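Ticket #437: bound-state structure for heme C.
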Amino acid sequence: MKRILVAFGFLIVGFAFVVSCEHDKKPHEKIKPVDQTTALQSKYARQLTDRKFAVTPDRLARGKYLANGILFCFNCHSKVDSSKPGYPPFPNMLGSGNLWFDKDSLRFGAPNISSDKETGAGNWTDDMFARAIRQGVGHDGRGLGTMPWTGFRNLSDEDLASVVVYIRSLPPISNYVAPRILTKERELRLQNQPRPMSDDPVSTPDTSTLVAKGKYLIKLSDCEGCHTGWYVRNPGYFGGGNLVGLNDTEKVASPNITSDIQTGIGGWDDETFIRVIRTGKSGTLKFAMPWTQFANMNDGDLKAILAALKTTVPVNHRVVNGLKPTLCPVCGQMHGFGDQNKIVNSKPVQGDETLFPNYAGTYVNDSVHDTVLIRFKNKKLWITQGQVENGNLFAIDKIKFSANNLPSPISFIKNASGKVIALTDYDLEPVVYQKIN
Ligand code: HEC
Ligand code: HEC
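RESOLUTION: The complex was predicted; output attached.
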């Protein structure tokens, strides 16, 4: 489970709504250069390099396809047309940036990344872009918020090069987006948030099967960050129940997109899925779901995404936006159909209790920056993932365990001599946590 994603989802909640009401431009004269000597620096800003990505027609085309599709850059980095369903970016404003919020001494927005030299990114280097995309560090070294780098860091080296080449080819648009002003606490949290300190190579993804290709795309845009109920009670990865979007009175719950046939997308065929993404359910899907951008993807990629979603662990949890929100026992949030959902507990089976003390310990996965703690207390096992207490672990078959508030079952891995060395959780792909004590 990725706690960083939670932060991403949270900011969307706070800021997305203002996109719709931001029409008045800041006067151009107000340009103030950010003071490089006092600007806050991420503790984890890696050194910039002088690499350059060669411009080729293939890269321009691939970069355009990715940036305007699965990576949805311009949902954020452009002025959007709030008179149209899904708030698509204005086609002549791609990269202009958009100031979302400037009120009560707080200010936030997506910067101008077009090639304009005064108000945009005309003077930045290729590696400044690469670092922002893969590590979430700005051209000036500040740790970025809301910029979805935790998904983007999965971009293969060639796809990264393509995106940078394409973004740098955007025509200059003069639009001043004033620097962010956050609370001191949030500012500190961003500067202290761990980020990869090196830019490790990412090889070309396996796209030999529909499922493999779909998984690559799903990781890039982090469907899971929005479509998992991280906050009150987590019904499962991709199981929905995260309140995203507009404002306090107009929040919309992310639906369940797991393989569950009754309440998820398990029963959808290609045609249905493609129609929903292309039309945003005839224009009823809110801006919080970047469907106006995903709609630009080709049929093959959309089919791949559906095929991969159908491999997820099914979660029984129905979310229907548009109905009056009611309290849902499954995710603990208010959403349409909420009170008609029931917690379907996995059936406990008899576990080998003599082994329980061997399972206790700390388990870590460095690549998702996450820790799982297993404790043995009162003859039972207890699990804490990240900072969330997930409750009492019980066996659900010979090797798998579950707990009430755990996003997926887990299983313990033993070495040849029977010693517990790791555990696995079942995300889009199984994630292995090594036991460190
Ligand atoms: C969900 C909204 C969102 C999406 C999608 C998004 N960004 Fe960003 N991006 C932001 C925000 C917000 C910031 C500024 C964050 C801050 O100042 O804390 C940012 C910062 C950046 C920066 C650093 C700007 C600087 O001042 O140094 C670059 C470069 C960038 N984004 C490029 C991209 C590209 C390229 C894509 C698509 C591949 C993309 N972004 C997708 C929201 C987004
Ligand atoms: C920034 C948050 C966000 C991201 C990223 C996101 N979604 Fe969504 N998605 C939502 C929200 C919120 C809704 C509900 C919108 C509404 O009902 O108005 C939604 C709705 C949907 C729906 C319609 C489901 C239904 O039953 O109505 C599908 C399908 C979907 N998303 C798939 C995806 C896929 C696949 C991805 C990744 C490629 C993805 N989403 C990424 C927030 C997001």
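RESOLUTION NOTES: The chain has a mean pLDDT of 89.
TICKET STATUS: resolved
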